Amino acid sequence: MDTTNHEKRPYRTSNAATPPGTSFQTAVLTIPSGNQPDEGLIVLNGKTVFFRSIAEAQRHGIAILHQEPALVPYMSVAENIFLGVEPRFAGFIPRFGYMKQESKRILKALGLSIHPNTPVRELSFGQQFIVAAAKALSFKSKILIMDEPTSCLSEVESEGLFDVIRTLKQEGVSIVYITHRLKEVMKICDRATFLRDGRHVATMDVAGMTEEDAIRIMLGKELHHFNPPILDEVGETLFKVEGLMKKPFFYDIGFSLREGEILGVFGMMGSGKSKLAKTLFGQDKPDGGKVFWRNRDVDFRIALVNDSVEEALFMNMGVNRNLTISGLDHIMQSHILNENKENDAALDAVMEMDIKIQHLNQEVKYLSRGNQQKVMLGKWLVPESDLYLLDEPTRGIDLRSKMEIYAKIHELAVSGKGVIVFSSDIPILMGLCTRILVMYQGHIVADLHHSEADEKKILQYATEGMSI
User: Fold this and answer.
1) Distance between CA 296 and CA 301 in Å, rounded?
2) For every residue of 224-245, which 3-state class applies, written as one string?
3) pTM for this structure?
Protein backbone atom coordinates (compact mmCIF):
# COMPACT_ATOMS: atom_id res chain seq x y z
CA MET A 1 0.00 0.00 0.00
CA ASP A 2 1.29 3.45 -0.94
CA THR A 3 1.40 5.54 2.26
CA THR A 4 3.16 8.59 0.86
CA ASN A 5 0.34 11.03 1.57
CA HIS A 6 -1.09 9.37 4.67
CA GLU A 7 0.20 12.02 7.02
CA LYS A 8 -2.06 14.51 5.26
CA ARG A 9 -5.05 12.26 5.75
CA PRO A 10 -4.98 11.00 9.36
CA TYR A 11 -7.76 8.88 10.82
CA ARG A 12 -10.59 10.11 13.05
CA THR A 13 -12.35 8.09 15.72
CA SER A 14 -16.10 8.60 16.08
CA ASN A 15 -15.75 10.63 19.28
CA ALA A 16 -13.20 13.21 20.33
CA ALA A 17 -13.29 12.12 23.95
CA THR A 18 -13.94 8.56 25.06
CA PRO A 19 -15.39 8.14 28.55
CA PRO A 20 -14.56 5.16 30.75
CA GLY A 21 -16.42 1.99 29.81
CA THR A 22 -17.11 2.93 26.20
CA SER A 23 -17.89 -0.15 24.08
CA PHE A 24 -17.23 -0.51 20.36
CA GLN A 25 -17.88 -3.34 17.93
CA THR A 26 -14.58 -2.37 16.34
CA ALA A 27 -12.06 0.45 16.52
CA VAL A 28 -8.57 1.22 15.28
CA LEU A 29 -6.48 3.57 17.36
CA THR A 30 -3.01 2.04 17.23
CA ILE A 31 -1.70 1.76 13.70
CA PRO A 32 1.41 -0.38 13.12
CA SER A 33 3.60 0.45 10.15
CA GLY A 34 2.10 -0.95 6.95
CA ASN A 35 -1.50 -0.55 8.16
CA GLN A 36 -1.95 3.18 7.73
CA PRO A 37 -5.46 4.61 7.20
CA ASP A 38 -6.63 6.03 3.89
CA GLU A 39 -8.45 9.00 5.42
CA GLY A 40 -9.88 10.47 8.63
CA LEU A 41 -8.50 11.84 11.89
CA ILE A 42 -7.69 10.65 15.38
CA VAL A 43 -8.65 13.24 17.97
CA LEU A 44 -7.23 12.65 21.43
CA ASN A 45 -8.01 15.05 24.29
CA GLY A 46 -9.13 17.64 21.78
CA LYS A 47 -5.97 17.42 19.66
CA THR A 48 -5.42 15.73 16.32
CA VAL A 49 -2.77 13.01 16.58
CA PHE A 50 -1.22 10.57 14.13
CA PHE A 51 0.47 7.32 15.17
CA ARG A 52 3.13 5.77 12.97
CA SER A 53 3.75 2.86 15.34
CA ILE A 54 2.38 1.07 18.39
CA ALA A 55 5.18 2.58 20.49
CA GLU A 56 4.05 6.06 19.49
CA ALA A 57 0.47 5.25 20.50
CA GLN A 58 1.74 3.96 23.85
CA ARG A 59 3.53 7.25 24.45
CA HIS A 60 0.12 8.90 24.09
CA GLY A 61 -1.32 6.60 26.77
CA ILE A 62 -2.99 4.07 24.45
CA ALA A 63 -2.43 0.32 24.82
CA ILE A 64 -3.98 -2.75 23.21
CA LEU A 65 -4.73 -6.17 24.69
CA HIS A 66 -5.07 -8.89 22.06
CA GLN A 67 -7.11 -12.11 22.12
CA GLU A 68 -4.05 -14.14 23.08
CA PRO A 69 -1.40 -12.76 25.46
CA ALA A 70 1.82 -11.77 23.70
CA LEU A 71 4.18 -12.91 26.45
CA VAL A 72 7.55 -14.69 26.60
CA PRO A 73 6.85 -18.01 28.41
CA TYR A 74 10.36 -18.58 29.79
CA MET A 75 10.66 -15.12 31.31
CA SER A 76 9.24 -14.10 34.68
CA VAL A 77 6.04 -12.16 35.23
CA ALA A 78 7.96 -9.00 36.13
CA GLU A 79 10.30 -9.33 33.14
CA ASN A 80 7.32 -9.69 30.80
CA ILE A 81 5.50 -6.69 32.26
CA PHE A 82 8.52 -4.42 31.73
CA LEU A 83 9.90 -6.07 28.59
CA GLY A 84 11.27 -3.34 26.33
CA VAL A 85 10.72 -0.56 28.87
CA GLU A 86 12.90 -1.77 31.73
CA PRO A 87 13.65 1.00 34.28
CA ARG A 88 17.41 1.39 34.72
CA PHE A 89 19.95 3.06 36.99
CA ALA A 90 22.20 5.48 35.08
CA GLY A 91 20.53 4.31 31.90
CA PHE A 92 22.03 0.80 31.81
CA ILE A 93 21.60 -1.10 35.14
CA PRO A 94 18.11 -2.75 35.35
CA ARG A 95 16.13 -1.87 38.50
CA PHE A 96 14.96 -5.39 39.27
CA GLY A 97 13.70 -4.54 42.75
CA TYR A 98 11.49 -1.75 41.44
CA MET A 99 10.19 -3.96 38.62
CA LYS A 100 9.12 -6.66 41.10
CA GLN A 101 7.45 -4.21 43.49
CA GLU A 102 5.63 -2.37 40.71
CA SER A 103 4.55 -5.66 39.10
CA LYS A 104 3.18 -6.85 42.43
CA ARG A 105 1.29 -3.58 42.90
CA ILE A 106 -0.29 -3.61 39.44
CA LEU A 107 -1.23 -7.29 39.63
CA LYS A 108 -2.78 -6.85 43.06
CA ALA A 109 -4.87 -3.98 41.71
CA LEU A 110 -6.07 -6.37 38.99
CA GLY A 111 -6.97 -9.02 41.54
CA LEU A 112 -4.10 -11.43 40.85
CA SER A 113 -1.74 -12.41 43.68
CA ILE A 114 1.27 -14.20 42.20
CA HIS A 115 4.99 -13.81 42.79
CA PRO A 116 6.65 -11.54 40.18
CA ASN A 117 9.45 -14.12 39.75
CA THR A 118 7.01 -16.79 38.53
CA PRO A 119 7.77 -17.92 34.96
CA VAL A 120 4.84 -17.12 32.67
CA ARG A 121 4.76 -20.72 31.37
CA GLU A 122 3.58 -21.86 34.82
CA LEU A 123 0.48 -19.65 34.76
CA SER A 124 -2.99 -20.57 33.56
CA PHE A 125 -4.26 -18.91 30.41
CA GLY A 126 -6.48 -16.62 32.47
CA GLN A 127 -3.56 -15.57 34.67
CA GLN A 128 -1.43 -14.89 31.58
CA PHE A 129 -4.18 -12.64 30.28
CA ILE A 130 -4.12 -10.59 33.50
CA VAL A 131 -0.32 -10.33 33.21
CA ALA A 132 -0.77 -9.02 29.64
CA ALA A 133 -3.23 -6.45 31.00
CA ALA A 134 -0.70 -5.45 33.66
CA LYS A 135 1.92 -5.01 30.93
CA ALA A 136 -0.45 -2.69 29.05
CA LEU A 137 -1.12 -0.68 32.21
CA SER A 138 2.59 -0.40 33.04
CA PHE A 139 2.74 2.21 30.27
CA LYS A 140 0.43 4.39 32.45
CA SER A 141 -2.22 3.87 29.80
CA LYS A 142 -5.40 5.92 29.98
CA ILE A 143 -7.07 4.18 27.01
CA LEU A 144 -6.99 0.39 26.85
CA ILE A 145 -8.24 -1.41 23.73
CA MET A 146 -9.37 -5.00 24.36
CA ASP A 147 -9.75 -7.14 21.23
CA GLU A 148 -12.12 -10.09 21.85
CA PRO A 149 -10.61 -10.52 25.34
CA THR A 150 -12.80 -13.44 26.45
CA SER A 151 -12.53 -15.54 23.29
CA CYS A 152 -9.99 -17.89 24.92
CA LEU A 153 -11.18 -17.57 28.54
CA SER A 154 -13.44 -19.86 30.54
CA GLU A 155 -16.65 -18.57 32.11
CA VAL A 156 -14.94 -18.17 35.49
CA GLU A 157 -11.93 -16.40 33.98
CA SER A 158 -14.23 -14.10 31.99
CA GLU A 159 -16.02 -13.03 35.15
CA GLY A 160 -12.63 -12.25 36.69
CA LEU A 161 -11.77 -10.11 33.66
CA PHE A 162 -15.04 -8.19 34.04
CA ASP A 163 -14.07 -7.39 37.64
CA VAL A 164 -10.74 -6.08 36.34
CA ILE A 165 -12.53 -3.90 33.80
CA ARG A 166 -14.78 -2.42 36.48
CA THR A 167 -11.73 -1.66 38.62
CA LEU A 168 -9.98 0.07 35.71
CA LYS A 169 -13.06 2.16 34.98
CA GLN A 170 -13.14 3.34 38.59
CA GLU A 171 -9.49 4.39 38.25
CA GLY A 172 -10.28 6.51 35.18
CA VAL A 173 -9.02 4.17 32.46
CA SER A 174 -11.17 4.29 29.32
CA ILE A 175 -11.91 0.90 27.77
CA VAL A 176 -12.55 0.21 24.08
CA TYR A 177 -14.05 -3.28 24.24
CA ILE A 178 -14.16 -5.07 20.88
CA THR A 179 -16.43 -8.11 20.89
CA HIS A 180 -19.10 -10.04 19.03
CA ARG A 181 -20.64 -11.31 22.27
CA LEU A 182 -23.73 -9.26 22.95
CA LYS A 183 -24.21 -10.54 26.49
CA GLU A 184 -20.83 -9.05 27.41
CA VAL A 185 -21.75 -5.71 25.88
CA MET A 186 -24.97 -5.67 27.90
CA LYS A 187 -23.12 -6.64 31.08
CA ILE A 188 -20.14 -4.29 31.22
CA CYS A 189 -20.40 -1.52 28.60
CA ASP A 190 -21.81 2.00 28.79
CA ARG A 191 -22.12 2.72 25.07
CA ALA A 192 -21.93 0.59 21.95
CA THR A 193 -20.87 1.44 18.41
CA PHE A 194 -21.93 -1.06 15.74
CA LEU A 195 -20.27 -1.77 12.41
CA ARG A 196 -21.79 -3.74 9.56
CA ASP A 197 -19.75 -4.67 6.49
CA GLY A 198 -17.03 -2.25 7.57
CA ARG A 199 -19.36 0.73 8.00
CA HIS A 200 -20.61 2.55 11.07
CA VAL A 201 -24.36 1.98 11.50
CA ALA A 202 -25.18 3.13 15.04
CA THR A 203 -23.86 4.40 18.36
CA MET A 204 -26.15 4.20 21.37
CA ASP A 205 -26.27 3.91 25.16
CA VAL A 206 -26.41 0.34 26.43
CA ALA A 207 -28.85 1.31 29.18
CA GLY A 208 -32.31 0.64 27.79
CA MET A 209 -30.97 -1.36 24.83
CA THR A 210 -32.21 -4.95 24.51
CA GLU A 211 -30.31 -7.85 22.99
CA GLU A 212 -32.96 -7.95 20.24
CA ASP A 213 -32.23 -4.29 19.46
CA ALA A 214 -28.52 -5.02 19.15
CA ILE A 215 -29.09 -8.05 16.89
CA ARG A 216 -31.38 -6.04 14.61
CA ILE A 217 -28.74 -3.30 14.30
CA MET A 218 -25.96 -5.79 13.59
CA LEU A 219 -27.91 -7.75 10.97
CA GLY A 220 -30.01 -4.94 9.54
CA LYS A 221 -33.13 -7.06 9.99
CA GLU A 222 -35.22 -8.85 12.59
CA LEU A 223 -33.90 -12.20 13.81
CA HIS A 224 -36.49 -14.84 14.59
CA HIS A 225 -34.26 -17.92 14.80
CA PHE A 226 -30.62 -17.74 15.86
CA ASN A 227 -29.87 -21.48 15.65
CA PRO A 228 -31.31 -24.20 13.40
CA PRO A 229 -33.48 -26.80 15.21
CA ILE A 230 -31.58 -29.37 17.26
CA LEU A 231 -31.48 -32.77 15.57
CA ASP A 232 -33.10 -35.58 17.54
CA GLU A 233 -33.69 -38.35 15.01
CA VAL A 234 -30.51 -40.40 14.99
CA GLY A 235 -29.54 -43.44 12.95
CA GLU A 236 -26.70 -45.95 12.93
CA THR A 237 -23.35 -45.43 14.62
CA LEU A 238 -20.95 -43.59 12.32
CA PHE A 239 -17.91 -43.05 14.49
CA LYS A 240 -16.69 -44.83 17.60
CA VAL A 241 -13.71 -44.22 19.87
CA GLU A 242 -12.45 -46.75 22.44
CA GLY A 243 -9.76 -46.21 25.08
CA LEU A 244 -8.03 -43.35 23.24
CA MET A 245 -5.08 -41.90 25.15
CA LYS A 246 -2.56 -39.11 24.65
CA LYS A 247 -0.45 -38.53 27.77
CA PRO A 248 -0.58 -36.20 29.64
CA PHE A 249 -3.52 -34.56 27.84
CA PHE A 250 -6.30 -37.15 27.96
CA TYR A 251 -6.91 -40.75 29.04
CA ASP A 252 -9.31 -43.61 28.22
CA ILE A 253 -11.55 -41.59 25.93
CA GLY A 254 -14.58 -43.47 24.65
CA PHE A 255 -17.69 -42.24 22.85
CA SER A 256 -19.82 -42.78 19.76
CA LEU A 257 -21.35 -40.52 17.12
CA ARG A 258 -24.52 -41.51 15.29
CA GLU A 259 -26.03 -40.47 11.97
CA GLY A 260 -28.13 -37.33 12.13
CA GLU A 261 -26.69 -35.92 15.35
CA ILE A 262 -24.26 -33.15 16.20
CA LEU A 263 -22.02 -34.14 19.11
CA GLY A 264 -20.60 -31.41 21.35
CA VAL A 265 -17.46 -31.61 23.48
CA PHE A 266 -17.10 -29.06 26.27
CA GLY A 267 -14.09 -28.46 28.49
CA MET A 268 -12.27 -25.67 30.29
CA MET A 269 -8.73 -24.63 29.38
CA GLY A 270 -6.44 -27.58 30.05
CA SER A 271 -9.23 -30.18 29.91
CA GLY A 272 -7.71 -31.81 26.83
CA LYS A 273 -10.56 -31.15 24.38
CA SER A 274 -8.48 -29.34 21.72
CA LYS A 275 -5.72 -31.94 21.93
CA LEU A 276 -8.40 -34.63 21.50
CA ALA A 277 -9.61 -32.93 18.31
CA LYS A 278 -6.07 -32.78 16.89
CA THR A 279 -5.42 -36.42 17.82
CA LEU A 280 -8.64 -37.63 16.19
CA PHE A 281 -7.66 -35.68 13.08
CA GLY A 282 -4.27 -37.41 13.03
CA GLN A 283 -2.26 -34.26 13.70
CA ASP A 284 -1.00 -35.84 16.94
CA LYS A 285 -0.28 -39.55 17.37
CA PRO A 286 -2.18 -41.24 20.23
CA ASP A 287 -0.48 -43.40 22.84
CA GLY A 288 -3.23 -46.01 22.64
CA GLY A 289 -6.84 -46.73 21.77
CA LYS A 290 -8.96 -47.55 18.74
CA VAL A 291 -11.07 -45.50 16.33
CA PHE A 292 -13.79 -46.97 14.11
CA TRP A 293 -15.84 -45.64 11.19
CA ARG A 294 -19.05 -47.63 10.58
CA ASN A 295 -17.61 -50.43 12.77
CA ARG A 296 -14.44 -50.70 10.69
CA ASP A 297 -10.91 -49.52 11.28
CA VAL A 298 -10.50 -45.88 10.26
CA ASP A 299 -10.19 -45.35 6.51
CA PHE A 300 -12.14 -42.20 5.71
CA ARG A 301 -11.74 -38.47 5.15
CA ILE A 302 -11.57 -36.29 8.28
CA ALA A 303 -11.86 -32.50 8.29
CA LEU A 304 -10.48 -30.37 11.12
CA VAL A 305 -11.63 -26.77 11.46
CA ASN A 306 -10.25 -24.73 14.36
CA ASP A 307 -10.05 -21.04 15.26
CA SER A 308 -6.47 -20.50 14.10
CA VAL A 309 -6.74 -19.15 10.55
CA GLU A 310 -2.99 -18.54 10.35
CA GLU A 311 -2.39 -22.23 11.12
CA ALA A 312 -5.01 -23.62 8.75
CA LEU A 313 -4.91 -21.26 5.75
CA PHE A 314 -2.28 -19.92 3.37
CA MET A 315 -2.83 -16.24 4.05
CA ASN A 316 -0.88 -14.97 1.02
CA MET A 317 -2.61 -17.33 -1.40
CA GLY A 318 -5.92 -16.83 -3.18
CA VAL A 319 -9.31 -17.99 -1.97
CA ASN A 320 -9.49 -20.54 -4.81
CA ARG A 321 -6.22 -22.27 -3.86
CA ASN A 322 -7.14 -22.36 -0.16
CA LEU A 323 -10.54 -23.88 -0.90
CA THR A 324 -9.18 -26.62 -3.16
CA ILE A 325 -5.89 -27.49 -1.42
CA SER A 326 -7.50 -30.36 0.54
CA GLY A 327 -9.19 -31.85 -2.53
CA LEU A 328 -6.52 -31.78 -5.21
CA ASP A 329 -7.16 -35.40 -6.19
CA HIS A 330 -10.65 -34.29 -7.29
CA ILE A 331 -9.38 -31.57 -9.63
CA MET A 332 -6.11 -33.00 -11.00
CA GLN A 333 -5.77 -34.92 -14.26
CA SER A 334 -2.70 -37.12 -14.74
CA HIS A 335 -1.04 -35.30 -11.82
CA ILE A 336 -1.58 -31.95 -13.56
CA LEU A 337 -3.71 -29.28 -11.94
CA ASN A 338 -6.77 -28.42 -14.02
CA GLU A 339 -7.30 -24.71 -13.37
CA ASN A 340 -10.82 -24.72 -14.80
CA LYS A 341 -11.84 -27.52 -12.44
CA GLU A 342 -10.08 -25.74 -9.58
CA ASN A 343 -11.98 -22.51 -10.15
CA ASP A 344 -15.27 -24.37 -10.62
CA ALA A 345 -14.79 -26.26 -7.36
CA ALA A 346 -13.75 -23.10 -5.53
CA LEU A 347 -16.72 -21.16 -6.88
CA ASP A 348 -19.09 -23.92 -5.76
CA ALA A 349 -17.63 -23.71 -2.23
CA VAL A 350 -17.82 -19.90 -2.23
CA MET A 351 -21.50 -20.01 -3.14
CA GLU A 352 -22.28 -22.86 -0.75
CA MET A 353 -20.61 -21.07 2.19
CA ASP A 354 -21.69 -17.57 1.04
CA ILE A 355 -18.10 -16.31 1.30
CA LYS A 356 -17.85 -12.57 0.58
CA ILE A 357 -14.99 -12.03 -1.90
CA GLN A 358 -14.05 -9.64 -4.70
CA HIS A 359 -12.66 -12.41 -6.93
CA LEU A 360 -11.47 -16.00 -6.58
CA ASN A 361 -7.78 -15.01 -6.60
CA GLN A 362 -8.23 -12.55 -3.72
CA GLU A 363 -5.67 -13.29 -1.01
CA VAL A 364 -7.24 -14.77 2.12
CA LYS A 365 -5.48 -12.26 4.39
CA TYR A 366 -7.73 -9.52 3.01
CA LEU A 367 -10.97 -11.28 4.00
CA SER A 368 -12.84 -10.58 7.21
CA ARG A 369 -12.34 -13.03 10.08
CA GLY A 370 -15.82 -14.46 9.51
CA ASN A 371 -15.12 -15.11 5.82
CA GLN A 372 -11.74 -16.64 6.65
CA GLN A 373 -13.51 -19.04 8.99
CA LYS A 374 -15.93 -19.93 6.18
CA VAL A 375 -12.96 -20.69 3.93
CA MET A 376 -11.59 -23.02 6.63
CA LEU A 377 -14.82 -24.99 6.61
CA GLY A 378 -15.37 -24.67 2.86
CA LYS A 379 -12.00 -26.21 1.97
CA TRP A 380 -13.23 -29.54 3.36
CA LEU A 381 -16.36 -29.52 1.18
CA VAL A 382 -14.32 -30.06 -2.01
CA PRO A 383 -12.96 -33.50 -0.94
CA GLU A 384 -16.42 -34.37 0.45
CA SER A 385 -15.17 -35.19 3.95
CA ASP A 386 -17.05 -37.78 6.02
CA LEU A 387 -16.29 -36.46 9.50
CA TYR A 388 -16.00 -32.80 10.54
CA LEU A 389 -14.12 -31.98 13.74
CA LEU A 390 -14.90 -28.33 14.53
CA ASP A 391 -12.71 -26.85 17.27
CA GLU A 392 -14.11 -23.45 18.32
CA PRO A 393 -15.49 -22.93 14.78
CA THR A 394 -17.11 -19.53 15.44
CA ARG A 395 -14.75 -17.95 17.98
CA GLY A 396 -14.23 -14.23 17.38
CA ILE A 397 -16.44 -13.85 14.30
CA ASP A 398 -19.49 -11.70 13.64
CA LEU A 399 -23.07 -12.74 14.33
CA ARG A 400 -24.09 -13.11 10.69
CA SER A 401 -21.15 -15.40 9.91
CA LYS A 402 -21.90 -17.44 13.03
CA MET A 403 -25.49 -17.99 11.92
CA GLU A 404 -24.37 -19.06 8.45
CA ILE A 405 -21.80 -21.50 9.84
CA TYR A 406 -24.37 -22.94 12.29
CA ALA A 407 -26.74 -23.51 9.36
CA LYS A 408 -23.97 -25.28 7.41
CA ILE A 409 -23.08 -27.48 10.39
CA HIS A 410 -26.75 -28.46 10.68
CA GLU A 411 -26.91 -29.19 6.94
CA LEU A 412 -23.82 -31.43 7.10
CA ALA A 413 -25.33 -33.52 9.90
CA VAL A 414 -28.68 -33.83 8.10
CA SER A 415 -26.85 -35.04 4.95
CA GLY A 416 -25.31 -37.93 6.90
CA LYS A 417 -21.90 -36.44 7.68
CA GLY A 418 -20.37 -36.88 11.12
CA VAL A 419 -20.06 -33.60 13.05
CA ILE A 420 -18.31 -33.05 16.39
CA VAL A 421 -18.11 -29.51 17.79
CA PHE A 422 -15.40 -28.81 20.40
CA SER A 423 -16.10 -25.58 22.28
CA SER A 424 -15.67 -23.75 25.58
CA ASP A 425 -18.80 -21.71 24.81
CA ILE A 426 -21.74 -23.47 26.47
CA PRO A 427 -24.53 -21.50 24.69
CA ILE A 428 -23.12 -22.55 21.30
CA LEU A 429 -23.18 -26.23 22.25
CA MET A 430 -26.62 -26.03 23.84
CA GLY A 431 -28.01 -24.32 20.74
CA LEU A 432 -26.53 -26.80 18.24
CA CYS A 433 -25.84 -30.23 19.71
CA THR A 434 -27.90 -33.36 20.18
CA ARG A 435 -25.56 -34.52 22.94
CA ILE A 436 -22.77 -32.82 24.90
CA LEU A 437 -19.71 -34.61 26.29
CA VAL A 438 -18.00 -32.83 29.19
CA MET A 439 -14.25 -33.19 29.77
CA TYR A 440 -12.40 -32.66 33.03
CA GLN A 441 -8.66 -33.18 33.52
CA GLY A 442 -8.34 -35.36 30.42
CA HIS A 443 -11.40 -37.55 31.03
CA ILE A 444 -14.97 -37.54 29.74
CA VAL A 445 -17.04 -37.18 32.91
CA ALA A 446 -20.51 -36.67 31.44
CA ASP A 447 -22.56 -37.51 28.34
CA LEU A 448 -25.65 -35.27 28.38
CA HIS A 449 -28.60 -35.30 26.00
CA HIS A 450 -29.59 -31.74 25.09
CA SER A 451 -32.92 -32.17 26.90
CA GLU A 452 -31.14 -32.65 30.24
CA ALA A 453 -28.23 -30.25 29.72
CA ASP A 454 -28.11 -26.81 31.31
CA GLU A 455 -25.29 -24.35 31.92
CA LYS A 456 -25.06 -25.00 35.66
CA LYS A 457 -24.86 -28.77 35.24
CA ILE A 458 -22.24 -28.57 32.47
CA LEU A 459 -20.05 -26.21 34.52
CA GLN A 460 -20.40 -28.44 37.57
CA TYR A 461 -19.03 -31.41 35.67
CA ALA A 462 -16.34 -29.33 33.94
CA THR A 463 -14.96 -27.78 37.14
CA GLU A 464 -15.42 -30.62 39.65
CA GLY A 465 -15.48 -33.72 37.47
CA MET A 466 -18.51 -35.02 39.34
CA SER A 467 -22.27 -34.82 39.27
CA ILE A 468 -24.31 -32.25 41.20
Assistant:
1) 14
2) CCCCCCCCCCCCCEEEEEEEEE
3) 0.65
Calculate the alpha carbon distances from 97 to 89, 107, 131, 168 in Å: 11, 15, 18, 25
* Rounded Cα distance, 264 and 206, in Å: 33
pLDDT band at 276 (very low <50, low <70, confident <90, very high): very high
Q: Which amino acid is at 208?
A: G
Peptide bond into 248 cis (omega under 30): yes
Q: Of all residues in the chain, what percent carry a pLDDT higher than 70?
A: 86
Q: Is the pLDDT of residue 34 over 50?
A: no
Closest CA to 22 of 134, 152, 177: 177
Q: What is the pLDDT of residue 24?
A: 34
SS (H, E, C) 49-111: ECCCCHHHHHHCCEEEECCCCCCCCCCEHHHHHCCCCCCEECCCEECHHHHHHHHHHHHHHCC
**d(C-alpha 85, C-alpha 126), whole Å:** 24
**Residues 375-402: tens digit of each pLDDT:** 888 888 877 788 899 888 887 777 788 8
Give the DSSP H or E segment for 273. Answer: helix 273-281
Nearest to 22 by CA among 175, 168, 135: 175
Domains of the chain with bracketed CATH: 6-219 (3.40.50.300), 237-464 (3.40.50.300)
* Helices of type H across 82-235: 96-109, 125-137, 155-170, 182-188, 211-219
DSSP states along 312-370? HS-TTSBHHHHHHGGGHHHHEETTEE-HHHHHHHHHHHHHHHT---S-TT-BGGGS-HH
With the C-alpha atoms ordered 282, 285, 286, 292, is the resulting torsion angle positive or negative?
positive
